[in-house]
């Protein structure tokens, strides 16, 4: 990376947490300057405006979440059901890290992704589409391999999983009680075992 590229990446990494905790709209240029230790001129020398930096920070936050989440869908978990279980476990085991980092970057950005910031709205939509597509792909592969019930609609169940997780995170973050996320994750496990699995798992 060139010096300019390293500086740009430094700014993105230093402000990613700030945007996710304080908000994309509420974060000021002064906040960014304080977080990076750089002058406003230096920041604008690397980004056209605050919105451009906010988009890059969102991509960084969403990319970090995606990189960790995708591990659950790796070949380390041989069956489709194993991958779905690992996906649920990821959120159960990483709740505190996600919460201390300001919460789910997709959900946080979605609350601000209205008509006043259409570019962010488009990025959030893309992230959710990719997330649901990956879950749907795992379910479809399991159905094609005879591992999962072939009747359920993979896309429908993928969206159901995302809705449960995001709702659980929202309530847990708002109330400070992680039980709501665990309830959502338990519900997903029940769906996997009773509606997606061809047979109930051995106990």
Written description of the protein model:
It is a single chain. This protein is 73% helix and 0% strand. The chain has 10 helices and no strands. α1 packs across α4 and α9 packs antiparallel against α10. The model has no long low-confidence stretch (mean pLDDT 90).
Quick synopsis:
By secondary structure, the chain is mostly helical. The protein has helices at residues 3-22, 29-36, 40-44, 50-70, 80-93, 95-100, 105-112, 118-144, 154-175, 179-196.
Q: What is the succession of H and E elements?
A: HHHHHHHHHH
Hey, roughly how much beta strand do the residues contain?
Answer: under 5%
Give a short account of the largest sheet. none
Low-confidence stretches: none
Distance between the termini: 52 Å
> So what's the overall shape?
elongated
Mean pLDDT: 90
Number of strands: 0
The percent range for helix content is over 70%
Structural class category: mainly alpha
Rg measurement, Å: 19 Å
Tally the helices: what do you get?
Answer: 10
């Amino acid at each position: 990376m060139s010096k300019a590229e390293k500086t740009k990446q430094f700014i993105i990494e230093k402000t990613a947490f700030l945007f996710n905790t304080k908000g994309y709209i509420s974060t000021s240029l002064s906040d960014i300057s304080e977080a990076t230790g750089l002058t406003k001129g230096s920041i604008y020398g690397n980004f056209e405006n605050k919105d451009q930096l906010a988009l890059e920070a969102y991509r960084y936050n969403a990319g970090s979440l995606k990189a960790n989440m995708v591990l659950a869908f790796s070949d380390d978990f041989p069956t489709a059901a194993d991958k779905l279980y690992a996906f649920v476990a990821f959120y159960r085991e990483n709740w505190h890290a996600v919460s201390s980092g300001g919460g789910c970057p997709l959900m946080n950005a979605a609350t601000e992704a209205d008509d006043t910031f259409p570019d962010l709205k488009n990025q959030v939509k893309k992230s959710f589409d990719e997330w649901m597509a990956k879950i749907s792909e795992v379910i479809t592969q399991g159905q094609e391999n005879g591992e999962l019930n072939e009747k359920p609609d993979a896309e429908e169940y993928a969206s159901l999983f995302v809705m449960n997780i995001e709702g659980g995170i929202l309530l847990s973050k708002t109330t400070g009680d992680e039980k709501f996320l665990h309830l959502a994750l338990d519900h997903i496990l029940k769906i996997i075992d009773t509606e997606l699995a061809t047979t109930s798992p051995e106990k």
